């Protein structure tokens, strides 16, 4: 949604993500979404590399 007065996006209308990895549900604004996605991708890559190494050792 946009504010009709100046055309900027209203902060309250932005979706809020919750970071559950730290054990606290700290609300993340949509500006942090790219960092959040990069963090998720990094975690998935590390887990898959460890899984491949683990399977190769069997």
Summarize the SSE layout with pairings.
Blueprint: E1 17-19, E2 26-28, H1 33-57
Antiparallel strand pairs: 1-2
Explain what the structure shows.
This protein has 58 residues and is mainly alpha-helical. It has one domain. The protein has one helix at 33-57; strands spanning 17-19, 26-28. It has a two-stranded antiparallel sheet with strand order 1-2. It is rod-shaped, with a radius of gyration of 18 Å. The model has no long low-confidence stretch (mean pLDDT 69).
Concise account of the structure shown:
This protein is mainly alpha-helical. It contains 1 helix and 2 strands, in the order ββα. The protein has one domain (11-57).
Q: Flag low-confidence runs.
A: none
Sheet with the most strands: spatial strand order: 1-2
Tell me, rounded to a whole number, the average pLDDT: 69
Q: Major beta sheet, specifics?
A: 2 strands, antiparallel
Number of spatially distinct domains: 1
| Beta-strand share of residues | 5-15%
Based on CA inertia axes, which overall geometry fits?
rod-shaped
**Please, how many helices?**
1
Q: How many E-type strands?
A: 2
What portion of residues is helical? 40-55%
């Amino acid at each position: 949604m946009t504010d009709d007065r100046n055309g900027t996006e209203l902060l309250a209308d932005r979706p809020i993500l919750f970071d559950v990895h730290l054990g606290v549900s700290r609300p993340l604004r949509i500006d942090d979404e790219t960092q959040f996605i990069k963090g998720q991708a990094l975690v998935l890559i590390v887990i898959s590399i460890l899984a491949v190494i683990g399977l190769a050792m069997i």
